[in-house]
Amino acid sequence: MMRILSVLISFFLCTIIYSQEKENQNVELPDFVITGKNIVNIQSVTKKAPPILTIISNDFLMPNYSTENLRVKEIESKNLNPLSFKEKIDYFNGNLELKAGIYSIPEGSLFFSQPFSNGNFQIKFDGSSLKAHVDNSEQTNYYGKANLNLYIKNSSKLFPGAKITLGGLYGSNEYKFYSVPNPEQNTLSKGNLSFGIQNLLNKYFAFSFEIAESFYSFKDEFFDENLLDLNGFVKVGLEKFDVASNIIYKKQSLTNSFAPRLSSTYLFANPRANINFIDEFKVSLGFTYSHITGNDYYAPYASVSVGLSNNVTIIGEYSPQADFITQVMMLDKNKYLNTYSFENLFFKKTNSISATLKYEYLKTIEFDIGLKYYTTPNQPYFRKTLPSGLSNGENFDLLTTNATSYSGFVKFILYPGEYGFLTTEIKYNRIEDNAGKQIPFNPQYDVSFKYNSNFNSSIIFEPSLRYLSKSFTDLTNNIDLKSFVDLSLRVTKKMNDNFYIFIEGSNLLNSSNYIYEGYKEMPISINGGISIKW
Fold first, then answer.
1. What is the CATH number of the domain that holds 123?
2. CA 53 to CA 71: how far, in whole Å?
3. Partner of 532 at 20 to 30 A CA spacing, among 93, 250, 416, 436?
4. Among the listed residues 516, 462, 508, the one whose alpha carbon sits nearest the alpha carbon of residue 485
5. DSSP letter at 337?
6. How far is 273 from 63, CA to CA, in rounded Å?
7. Does the model's pTM come out above 0.90?
8. 177: phi > 0 → left, psi -120 to 50 → alpha, else beta; which?
9. Per-residue pLDDT tens for 495-528?
């Protein structure tokens, strides 16, 4: 599959390049490509209003229903001012950061971006070697990512105004299940290759398409998963009326000790008709269809978007649907997952209602508030594995139960300017079974705060806070984990335009923090390092 994907991508890119070479070769650098260090005046831009589209989120254990996650593909533009940076900003093509401290020996990251006439290329590398803060908790990580973005001129004969993306990543994490004595070493590797094209500028015909293949594997266990993912969107219509649909296809190939070779396919479609009565009032009606081998799910779909002014928008949506949950997705949630506990999950939300309000004031403030409710016959949750011949109790099984979810969020953003940069978000998420018991390892409250301020022309303060309320370790709610508190601070000294030194501390209150039972998070930690920008 990877060979076929590579051939198709190469052929498509060659076709695009050839079509543009036949035109004027004197290509001007696009306005949005910034090279090197520059002084740029940020102008007001046109911003799309919030969409009338369904949401498919992998973040189902602790969902975040911010309007940032809503697709913006079908709504006509409104004149807002979303850019909120200072009028003059320094831009850099690259950044190298190195640091070491109490538990890091060392850590480093490298970012580099190279613009060219009709696109840009970006790479990023991260690596760390962390000492044990409790017995056997040492770990090593490395991660690399590359992206190529191509922008086709509006005058091109083939896909004018389109954006083409090609990306890949690879990473590895060596760690131990340190909640038990004498654990074995595990090496979890993951990778991804993706190709996409989108053209959303045409009001009468818009489309996007992405194909990606991801893999996960345990070096020390007989486990491999490959996931082929095709994600498409198309809209055809007139100025006041159009029809559209999102289409998702996934194919999972799984190998482990209990399933020598398992293959499952998933299909999702959301056909709908969109009626734009006026720019500030839009309605969408349709249905959702979800399919996995041997199982189908249909549900009606409706959405309304109302713009009360240029600054305030309200979105309401009714969108029952079924998502496809795979091992790859759950390992991203919990790397201590027992991969033998499930193969995949057809996660049904039989009722799903959400409402979001978004407020923006000039270039300074953004305020979002949202609510969501759903019921499900198979809500996934983690439970500590019971000791057996296959496990010492160091893993977590994935189980399901009938459940009802009530969630909401409040987010406030003060954009970079005279008063610094502030982001604050409060999330509430209560998921309970039919007996009124909360699902395990699901804190009801999740609070995050981060502030960035220039104390003077050469010193930058960056305090941050993460708080998770207590959670339970079992479905009977008899045992709980205490609340999680991580207060952090980073102070940076600018030596010159390209060289910075910094000191940072995390968990400054030295709280005894746990997200999962038996796995204590890092205590107070102090690091120091340098940052070089160019």
1. 2.40.170.20
2. 6
3. 416
4. 508
5. B
6. 27
7. no
8. beta
9. 999 999 999 999 999 999 999 999 999 999 999 9
